[in-house]
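Lab notebook, entry 257. We have the chain sequence and a SMILES string for NAP, and the next step in the workflow is to get a structural model of the bound complex before anyone spends time on docking refinements. Request logged below.

Task: model protein plus NAP, output structure tokens.
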Amino acid sequence: MDLGIAGKLALVTASSGGMGRNIAHSLAAEGANVVLFARSADKLQAVAEEIEKKHGVKAVAVAGSMLETADVRRLAGTLKELGGPDIVVLVTGRPPNPLRDTLDENDESRWTEAYQTQLWAVVQVMNAVAPLMLPRGWGRIIAVTSASAKEPMALHALSTVFRSGVAAYMKGLSKEIGHTGITINCVGPALIDTSHRTGKSAYTAEQTKHRESLTPLGRMGTQEELCGVIAFLASRQAGFVNGSTIQVEGGMGNSLF
Ligand SMILES: NC(=O)c1ccc[n+]([C@@H]2O[C@H](COP(=O)([O-])OP(=O)(O)OC[C@H]3O[C@@H](n4cnc5c(N)ncnc54)[C@H](OP(=O)(O)O)[C@@H]3O)[C@@H](O)[C@H]2O)c1
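Result returned:
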């Protein structure tokens, strides 16, 4: 299926590694040019080079933090020079580590960090970047939240609270700017394999084993399975999916809708 995004310009945040990098690859594989944004300049440049080499598209690395206003403004400046983004995929850094039970989340600095990393980072990028999309008559905005925003998971209070905030923000924005031709959706992952992260897993070996048993499929999801859903939401064919969250969690949740 031709997703109809060849030649479009896609911003992917938090894309120097992990999910963001894989999402950027999957959009580039469909012919989209990409702008990458994360703090590690060297890693980001390496991702840009590997994308250009593998997919033959343009990949621009903008080093900076989603939490730094000056960096986000510089990102918006680069996007404007390139003609404005058609597609924005909002990935963020992780919530504070290690994970804790809800009543053990009694440290205000962890709540502040989680708010800034999960919610404010998204709002700050949207404030700077979404206005560039409005005059273009077509657009796709996709935020990566978490399955726990819909069905809270143990140990995930700091993620659940602020990622459901992102879902609410995105829903409101979809009502406000849908008339411009931009769709806005969220993807709520859980249990996606992150074995690319070495030496700093948020889970103990026992927790990891338990997590694999949480879906009827009895396994973790792959990065490819997550990226495929995001690429679809970025596509021409997804034009009537708007204001939704698509869960990518292998059937772990219990709700019907
Ligand atoms: N795996 C799952 O099942 C699952 C489920 C729900 C939610 N998620 C969420 O999905 C997101 C991505 O996960 P992942 O496994 O890919 O994480 P990861 O491997 O830790 O990568 C996080 C990325 O975020 C970037 N980043 C961190 N802080 C940033 C900032 N202030 N500004 C710009 N970029 C920043 C990092 O790059 P720099 O250090 O270079 O900035 C890195 O590229 C996380 O928020 C995670 O919590 C994952």
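Notes for the group: Residues 13-14, 16-20, 38-40, 43, 65-67, 91-94, 121, 144, 146, 189-192, 194, 197 surround NAP (CB under 6 Å). Worth checking against the assay data. The chain has one domain: 9-248.
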